[in-house]
Structures are given as C-alpha cells and as structure tokens.
Automatic annotation (TrEMBL), chain A:
It comes from the Bacteria. It is found in: Cell membrane. Coiled coil: none annotated. One of its GO terms (cellular component) is plasma membrane. Signal peptide: none annotated. This is Cation:proton antiporter. Belongs to the CPA3 antiporters (TC 2.A.63) subunit C family. Keywords: Cell membrane, Membrane, Transmembrane, Transmembrane helix. InterPro entries: CPA3_antiporter_subunitC, NUOK/Mnh_C1-like. The chain crosses the membrane at residues 6-25, 32-53, 78-99. It is a multi-pass membrane protein.
Length: 118, 231
C-alpha cells in the first residue's frame, strides 16, 4: 500500500465510515440526515478517485485537434454527476419529512417518538 | 458509551479492510481506459463534436440515465411540496435582514443568475453544465428569499418553466428517434469542435436541464421556507 493510495482512498473511506458512525450513534433525525450526506460525499469522492490516471488531465480536449492528451476516465465522473443530484434530492425530501415529524410529535429524537412502537 | 466505542472500532476495522482491498486491486493512479471509456475518449469528439467528454457521456451516450435522474429530481421535489402542504411557519422566528444584506442581495442576485446561465451555456466546452448551472441559479433565488423581507415570486412562472423544460427535453429525444432512429440521438450537425455553437443537441439539452433544475430547486427552497403549495 503506497502513500498515495492511503491518502486518496483513505480520506473518502474515512468519510463513509464516519457517516455510518453518525447514523448508528445519534438519536437526532436531523443529524442522521447529515451523516447520510457525509457518507454520500465520501462515496462520490471514492468513485472519482478510482478513475484517476497518473499524469492525466480532465477529459476535456481544449486544444482539439492538435493534441490528444492523456485523460482520466470520464465514466465515473458522469456517474458521480448523477449521484450528486440524487443526493440533493433525497436530502431535501428527508428534511421535509423531519420538519413534518417535528411539527406533529414535537421532537426529532427517535427514542421519544412513541408512535413508532406498536 | 461502550457501545459507541465498539461501533467505532468495528467501523474502523471495516474501513481498513476496504482500504487495503481497494489499494491491492486498484492501485491509485494506475487505472487503464478499457471498453466504453476508451471508446468515449478516442471517438467522442469525432462522433458528437463536444470537446468535454463528460458532457457527451452524460447527455448522449448515457442520455437515458440523465432523463431518469431528472425524473427522480422532479419526483422528489414534488413529494417535498406534497409533504409540506399546509405547514405553519412562525414568521416571528425568522431574523429580520439588515440594510446591508438587503441591498447586497438585491445587487448580487442578477449577477449570480448570469453566472449560472454562463455555466450551463458552456457545458460542452468547460467543466460545468446544466446541473451545476441550475443549482447556481437556485442559490440566487435562495439569496433573495433570505435577504429580502416579504420577497415572493409567482409560483405559476416557476411551474411553467419546469413543465416546459421537461416537455421540450422529451421532445428533443423524440426528434432524435424520428431522425436518427435512436431516442436522444444527435440529429443536428456537430459543427466545429471547441466553438459555442457546436456539438449538435448537447447545448440544447443542457440549457433545458439548466432551466429545469433551476426552477425545481427554487420551488423546493421556497417550499422549505414557506410551507408547501397545492399544485
């Protein structure tokens, strides 16, 4: 394991792990959403890092047709573009649900939501 | 407390396992372009005329993916509005904007909209495109919603923009089906790569996506501030 792999894979994996930890340990629904969002960012960074090629540039041929530079993989970047928007969408919907729960039960603590137990 | 430490240790072990497996099988920076990635990077510019390969992949090669994504965004924003119908927002709790915020917001918002339009118009030439451009436009409306007291816009305009952009997007796809026998296929001339008017239908699709994402995000932010609307 070289130092570059350690940094560029280690940081996103750390983000993912911390997101899961937040979801597991907190009882606040809003903080759980934040944990999910952190996890989402970690996964996106990890996917982009997997497509990287040493010494390559972004897949934009600015000087076409003169040069054909070495470029990185465009497919993970396109997929991450999709994933970011989906992440925003789910975050918005989740926030709306949390607002509703707060309005109805007066709390966002999952242990105090008595109606969940039946 | 012991439970939290236990969770932490298990997750660290899990992360270390993934990290070592990833760096053993895919060493960082030694990825090789194979299959579709190789085709996209070698033939992409000649095929479609857009020098930004990511944009070509998003709008044409994986056009269905993007259409589905726009649909998911639309669905979730609609669900957000539906969830928040009739929510009572306590006006007194919102802090009153100061004079500096009010004036600064008023002058900054049009410039941010202009920048968003620039980003989605140049989607096939530079990093960016419809999704970031739309979100930038939505941030300018967020600025107005936060800084201007009693600011409100006509929801009818936002909804009309959204519906028009979505319909035209599908219509462009159907025109591709009619002319080149493939849904969302490129039926225009590709032009000279690197110019603003080039790359066939990529700029058209990205402009429509920019309008759609911008209006959807704006309506979502407005609903989160004022409670949902009935539409």
């Amino acid at each position: 394991m070289n130092i570059e792999s350690l940094i560029f894979y280690g940081v996103p994996i750390y983000l993912i792990v911390m997101g899961i930890l937040v979801i597991l340990t907190t009882k606040n629904l809003f903080k759980m959403l934040l944990g999910l969002s952190i996890m989402d960012s970690g996964i996106n960074i990890l996917i982009v890092a997997l497509g990287y090629i040493k010494g390559a540039t972004a897949p934009i041929y600015s000087r076409y047709p003169e040069v054909f530079e070495k470029v990185v993989d465009p497919v993970p970047q396109a997929l991450v573009l999709t994933a970011i928007v989906i992440g925003i969408a789910f975050l918005g919907l989740g926030l709306a649900l949390v607002i509703r729960i707060k309005e109805k039960y007066g709390t966002v603590n999952v242990e105090k939501l008595k109606e969940l137990k039946w | 407390m012991i439970r939290k430490v236990l969770y932490f240790l298990i997750l660290i072990a899990f992360g270390f396992f993934i990290l070592s497996a990833l760096s053993a099988y895919f060493p960082f920076g030694e990825n090789v372009l194979t299959g579709v990635a190789r085709y996209y990077t070698e033939k992409g510019v000649k095929d479609l005329g857009g020098i930004n390969i990511v944009t070509s992949v998003v709008t044409i090669y994986r056009g269905f993916d993007t259409l589905g994504e726009v649909t998911v965004l639309f669905l979730s924003v609609t669900a957000l509005a539906f969830t928040l119908v009739g929510l009572k927002v306590e006006k007194a709790k919102l802090p009153k904007p100061t004079l500096i915020m009010e004036t600064g917001g008023r002058y900054l918002a049009p410039l941010i909209i202009l920048f968003g339009a620039y980003v989605f118009l140049h989607g096939h030439l530079t990093p960016g495109g419809g999704f970031p451009g739309g979100v930038i436009i939505a941030t300018s409306f967020l600025l107005l919603l936060v800084t201007q007291e009693n600011y409100r816009f006509k929801k009818f305009h936002i909804t009309t923009t959204e519906v028009l952009a979505g319909t035209l997007y599908v219509l462009v796809g159907l025109l591709g089906l009619y002319y080149v026998k493939s849904f969302l296929g490129n039926f225009l001339k590709t032009g000279k790569p690197g110019y603003l008017v080039s790359a066939g239908i990529i700029p058209i699709i990205y402009i429509l996506i920019g309008f759609k994402v911008g209006s959807e995000m704006t309506s979502a932010l407005n609903n989160l501030k004022e409670g949902g609307d009935e539409h």
